[in-house]
Design a protein that fits this description.
By secondary structure, this protein is an alpha/beta fold. The protein has a single domain, classed as Class I glutamine amidotransferase (GATase) domain (Rossmann fold, 3-Layer(aba) Sandwich), CATH 3.40.50.880. 34% of the residues lie in helices and 27% in strands. A nine-stranded mixed beta sheet has the order 2-1-3-4-9-8-7-5-6. Strand 7 and strand 8 form a beta hairpin. Helix 2 crosses helix 3 and helix 5 crosses helix 7.
């Protein structure tokens, strides 16, 4: 039975639609909740893969969140060991940092549903090949990352060029949120800190528009997430077939 370690930063950012895909494939999942236990230093021994979830903090806030430095160290060790690693939003930024890339503020915040398009490399990638041209994908971020040296850019949006990358065969950073469903989006919109973040943008982001668009776009997002996450699980050995990955 494969064991998966999950780095969690806040209670409301969870595996979402990835959770049932993993459990139906027989995974045992261990959450490390840094919000509750900021001083914990989890050991990767005994685990077959790592997922790093999102959070409202910036990747460089190590003085306020010292666990971020430990996470970067752990991610670097996981990558070197060859285990599958998936980072979502903040998680993708921490993977980028672990691989030596820069993380910094994006020109604009993306909060809500945005167009996202795979690159040529993305169209041939196992996780991204199910995207049919431009898709509406859920976002909630203000930072971005440089694509690490040796990694492949997989997707872009008009407001944020670097949206996804693959390093090697089985390390992925996704700036966007494939894992959300309608209840998660509504929950996020009600979180006091999230509401304050939107209010501070002085009307640039309309939460009611997000609520209106979510029932329209969430079903397609679920299709994409189920297929992408199933491909990710294939890296653990359930699916021995491998697609030829495009070079950079």
């Amino acid at each position: 039975m494969p064991r998966l370690l999950v780095f969690q930063h806040v209670a409301h950012e969870i595996l979402g639609t990835l959770d049932p895909v993993l459990r139906n494939s027989g995974f045992r999942i261990k959450y490390v909740n840094f919000e509750r236990h900021p001083d914990i230093t989890p050991d990767l021994d005994g685990y077959d893969g790592l997922v790093v979830l999102g959070g409202p903090m910036n990747a460089d806030e190590v003085d306020s969140f010292p666990n971020l430095a430990w996470e970067v160290h752990s991610i670097r060790s996981a990558v070197k060991s060859g285990m599958p690693v998936l980072g979502i939003c903040l998680g993708s930024q921490l993977i980028a940092r672990a691989l030596g890339a820069r993380v910094y503020k994006n020109d604009e915040k993306e909060i809500g549903w945005y167009d996202l398009s795979p690159t040529e490399a993305g169209r041939g990638d196992p996780l991204m090949s199910h995207f049919k041209g431009t898709e509406k994908i859920f976002q909630w971020h203000g930072d971005t990352f440089d694509v690490p040296e040796g990694a492949v850019l997989l997707a872009s949006s008009p407001l944020c060029r670097n949206q996804a990358f693959r390093y090697g065969e089985n390390v992925y950073g996704l700036q966007f949120h494939l894992e959300v469903d309608e209840p998660m989006v509504e929950r996020w919109l009600r979180i006091p800190g999230n509401k304050k973040e939107i209010e501070e943008l002085n009307g640039k982001i309309d939460p009611e528009r997000i609520r209106k668009e979510t029932p329209e776009y969430a079903p397609r997002l679920k299709e994409l997430s189920d297929r992408a996450f199933a491909e990710f699980i294939g890296f653990f050995g359930f699916n021995k077939k491998r697609k030829t990955l495009p070079s950079r």
